Amino acid sequence: MSMSIRVLTACLLVPVAAVTAGCELMVAGPRAQASDIWERTYQVDRDVTLEVENTNGAITVRTHPGTTVQVKATRTARAVTEQGARELLAKLNLENAASASRVKLVTPRPHGLSMGQQVDVRYDVLLPATATVVLTTVNGRVDVEGVTGAVSLETVNGGISGQGLLGLRKAETVNGSVDLTLAGLPAGGAAIETVNGSVRVVVPSTLAADLAVRTVNGPIDVHGFSSKSDGARRRRHYAGQVNGGGSALRVETVNGGVSITGREPAATATAPAAGAP
């Protein structure tokens, strides 16, 4: 998703209120809701690919040692009346296709919604750490932890967060900040983009990478690496290498600062020697 397309999408999603002389238009929001939980478990390979395409709602992915993809989708419908909310929920059927190598979940885009109606789905997923993950939503946060396979994350109105990722390829949003802790970078590099939000990336201090950072309104801070070689550095642009250079890490934002920090691995506690006080 290019920066220009994402900006246009964000503009289209902003509610518009029109007021004319002597006339005011008021729209009542949903007053009642109905919800349920949709659950599935799929037996998969450890290198399974998970794809989730959502519209309204967050997506959260965590890992477990098993060889299953476990999905819990909380479906919520809102309407002016309780009866309307229940009827709307009954029409919200999630699409899913699964095999040992691929699981795809899709929230169909709602059609024919009346004034004061809305639906959203929150996905919570458990899967093997070595899976490939491709997550897309429009209005909602995306959060992934512990995945070492390839990862692509995309939203429009919502933040992105990730912990312990090894194969991040892209993380893109429009209205939201990005907060990532990466265990490394894939050979093909990674791209991180937002428009209205800050970017914070933490990587190992020994990571070898080529950095390219751009922002319009916000500071750029690169620190904490074993060695650093600055190339072009200006107030709104930074290009350089850390630890001799390697995979590319590209970061762009418009309204927000960028921080790329090298961090030493956490010390591992050791048991005291026998006979020690």
Tell me about this structure.
- By secondary structure, the chain is mostly beta strands.
- It folds into two domains: 33-45 and 63-128, no CATH class; 141-265, no CATH class.
- The protein contains two helices and 23 strands.
- It has helices at 3-13, 82-90; strands at residues 19-20, 23-24, 32-43, 49-53, 59-63, 68-79, 95-98, 102-106, 118-127, 132-136, 142-145, 150-154, 160-165, 167-172, 178-182, 190-193, 199-204, 209-214, 220-223, 228-234, 237-242, 247-252, 258-263.
- The strands form three sheets. An eleven-stranded mixed beta sheet has the order 7-8-4-10-12-14-16-22-18-21-20, with no helix packed on it. The protein has a ten-stranded mixed beta sheet with strand order 3-6-9-5-11-13-15-17-23-19, with helices on one face.
- It starts with a helix and ends in a 14-residue tail after the last strand.
- Residues 1-27 and 268-277 have low confidence and may be disordered.
Shape: flat
How many structurally independent domains? Answer: 2
**In DSSP terms, counting alpha (H) and pi (I) runs of 4 or more, how many helices?**
2
**How many β-strand stretches?**
23
SS strand fraction: over 45%
Major sheet description: 11 strands, mixed
Helix content estimate = under 10%
Mean pLDDT figure: 87
Detail the poorly predicted runs: 1-27, 268-277
Give the neighbour order of strands across the main sheet.
7-8-4-10-12-14-16-22-18-21-20
Rg calc: 22 Å
Question: How far apart are the first and last residues' alpha carbons, in Å?
Answer: 60 Å
Alpha-beta classification: mainly beta
Helix/strand order: HEEEEEEHEEEEEEEEEEEEEEEEE
